[in-house]
Amino acid sequence: MGYDPVHTDEVRRITAEGGAAEELAAALLQASFRRQFNYRDDLVAQALADLCARPAPARQRVRDALAGHFRTADADTEPGRHLLALVALIGRGLSGEVLVTERRRQLDTVGVQWRTGYSAWQQALVDGELAAGRNLAPVVVATLRRSHLSPYYCEGLAAVVPKLAGPVLNVGEAWADRALADGERWQPLLAHTMTATAVRPSARWERTARSLCDAIGAGPVREQVLGWLDLVGTPRTVPLVEEGGYEPDANAMWDPHNATALRGLAWTLAVLPPHPGSVPALGRLAEAALCRLEGHGALSPRVAGACVTALARTDGEPALAELSRLAGRVTHKPTRKLLDAALESRTTSR
């Protein structure tokens, strides 16, 4: 069934004529059951804007009428979700919220996906939760962040992701869950690692990292970071549903949001005094990041590059030996280029 504007036109007519709440709710109900009903469509957006301009009592009657219909609908269908979103949109700012539990249950289905196209009903429910001052579940925040980092992300995500109040890392990966569970003491350092977005650390980035590490102590920081890195690549703690088709295995992917923090953690090890445990940990992380996944390629070349940069900035023969070992094993061309440059620099500076 394709998009049919007849029901949307009916909504606009009833709204313009100031029709009864029951009549308007019935027209909206019919419109919501069209397969391609879209709140971002100009006709629909104007009809909803006209409706939301009505006095609160009139809007409340329409909202309550639609909520009554929802309770007899199948919530786990696309039309049911559209209807739920309509209730949220029309009820924005009204007292006595309805269907809050049902709204959050539908949003929870987003949290088991690797990424989402951020459909109209999802955007309506997310906006409704944020407008009501409620935080989204961490798993939902994780999906929205990952989706925004996709090259095919929906434009609506650019506006909503900065508003999300969630943990600094995405939940669902064992190492990130452990880091978040280790307490507030580590939050400033983790927040700093999330700024590791450049090709290499700047002097200012390193100064801040060194200051944060000094406040805790180099030994405890190193021990904690190495413990987190030991968990990288272990099975996800929040399994994701398979998308099917030609998509890569979502449960084998590295969360791109958390990958930024991994880059920052690698750089952090380089600002600490050299230690026998740091060098092999960086080498293992680099190799793990370059493991190939069918349909995707290397898991995270940027993390591998950060490890090479960290090894290049680490004094001592063990770091040089690790760079040489990686150069003999790595076939990923961009990373190999970084390794060759690091080895040449170390050799000429000796």
Task: Describe the protein's topology.
Blueprint: H1 6-16, H2 21-32, H3 42-52, H4 56-70, H5 78-90, H6 100-108, H7 120-131, H8 138-148, H9 155-160, H10 174-181, H11 187-193, H12 203-216, H13 218-229, H14 256-271, H15 278-289, E1 292-293, E2 297-298, H16 301-312, H17 317-327, H18 333-349
Antiparallel strand pairs: 1-2
Helix pairs in contact: 1-2, 1-3, 2-4, 4-5, 5-7, 6-7, 10-13, 11-12, 11-14, 14-16, 15-16, 15-17, 16-18, 17-18
Protein model, in words:
With 350 residues, the chain is mainly α. It has 18 helices and 2 strands. It has helices at 6-16, 21-32, 42-52, 56-70, 78-90, 100-108, 120-131, 138-148, 155-160, 174-181, 187-193, 203-216, 218-229, 256-271, 278-289, 301-312, 317-327, 333-349, and strands spanning 292-293, 297-298. It has a two-stranded antiparallel ribbon with strand order 1-2. Strand 1 (292-293) and strand 2 form a beta hairpin. Helix 1 runs antiparallel to helix 2 (21-32) and helix 17 runs antiparallel to helix 18 (333-349). The termini are far apart.
Question: What tags apply to this protein structure?
Answer:
single chain, about 60% helix, two-stranded antiparallel ribbon, about 350 residues, mainly alpha
Quick gist of this model?
The N and C termini lie far apart (72 Å). The protein has helices at residues 6-16, 21-32, 42-52, 56-70, 78-90, 100-108, 120-131, 138-148, 155-160, 174-181, 187-193, 203-216, 218-229, 256-271, 278-289, 301-312, 317-327, 333-349, and strands at 292-293, 297-298. The protein is built from 18 helices and 2 strands.
